[in-house]
Design a protein that fits this description.
The strands form 2 sheets. Strands 4-2-6-1-7-8-9 form a 7-stranded parallel β-sheet, sandwiched between helices. A two-stranded parallel ribbon has the order 3-5. The chain has a single domain, classed as 3-Layer(aba) Sandwich (Rossmann fold), CATH 3.40.50.300. The longest helix is centred in the C-terminal third of the chain and has 15 residues. β7, α5 and β8 form a beta-alpha-beta unit. α1 packs across α2 and α1 packs across α7. 36% of the residues lie in helices and 22% in strands. It is globular. With 203 residues, it is of the alpha/beta class. It comes from Chryseotalea sanaruensis. It catalyses: (7R,8S)-7,8-diammoniononanoate + CO2 + ATP = (4R,5S)-dethiobiotin + ADP + phosphate + 3 H(+). Pathway: Cofactor biosynthesis; biotin biosynthesis; biotin from 7,8-diaminononanoate: step 1/2.
Length: 203
């Protein structure tokens, strides 16, 4: 099964969440559009310890750290989502989006349109900060308007029970995981969260 990891903002914690998901499912990883270096693929690969996960190359690899449409324009390119094909694999596939849901790919398409094109279940990553309730609920409304299947939500940051509670109440999303602030992020950190994810994963 394919899962599309998206966030409520650029720094929501999608890459660490993707690494945890890959380690838990021993799934393949794919970042279809990478804008800026270092590559998130390299980061996830450094955090994975299982031998089954395969890292598929990006379809678009852009140099400038900006929204894909701006980064592509700087290189004289136009991105076309119809050209982006899901890698063939017999394994689960974790697909990491670029930035938040409404980050533009070109003048017509947004990052979340990839999830619909690929027919993926969505995993939403929400970092907890002042204003994140509004941003998370707006993102959830967008996912629901687009009739996308949402597997669940991953919270990231200092615990805020009131924020989490109201978000879960209004979205009806399943809480899959809460990633706490970590001084060091490495393979041990990723493995630490696999057990919690396993408990919450089953339908």
């Amino acid at each position: 099964m394919n899962f599309f990891v998206t966030g409520i903002d650029t720094d929501s914690g999608k890459t660490l969440a993707s690494a945890i998901l890959c380690e838990f499912l021993q799934a393949d990883y794919w970042k279809p559009i990478q804008a800026g270096l270092p590559r998130d693929t390299d980061t996830v690969e450094s955090l994975i310890s299982n031998s089954k996960t395969f890292f598929h190359p990006e379809h678009y690899l852009l140099k400038m750290p900006a929204s894909p449409h701006a980064s592509a324009k700087a290189e004289g390119k136009t991105l076309n989502i119809s050209d982006v094909k899901v890698p063939i694999t017999d394994n689960h596939l974790i697909i990491e989006g670029a930035g938040g849901c409404l980050v533009p790919i070109n003048d017509q398409d947004f990052v979340i349109d990839l999830a619909a094109t690929f027919n993926c279940s969505v995993i939403l990553v929400a970092d907890l900060y002042l204003g994140s309730i509004n941003h998370t609920l707006l993102t959830a409304n967008l996912l629901q308007q687009k009739k996308l299947n949402v597997k669940g939500i991953v919270f990231n940051g200092q615990p805020n029970p009131e924020s989490e509670s109201i978000i879960l109440h209004h979205t009806k999303f399943k809480k899959l995981l809460h990633i706490l602030p970590e001084k060091t992020i490495n393979q041990h950190t990723v493995k630490k969260y696999v057990g919690d994810l396993k408990i919450n994963w089953a339908d």
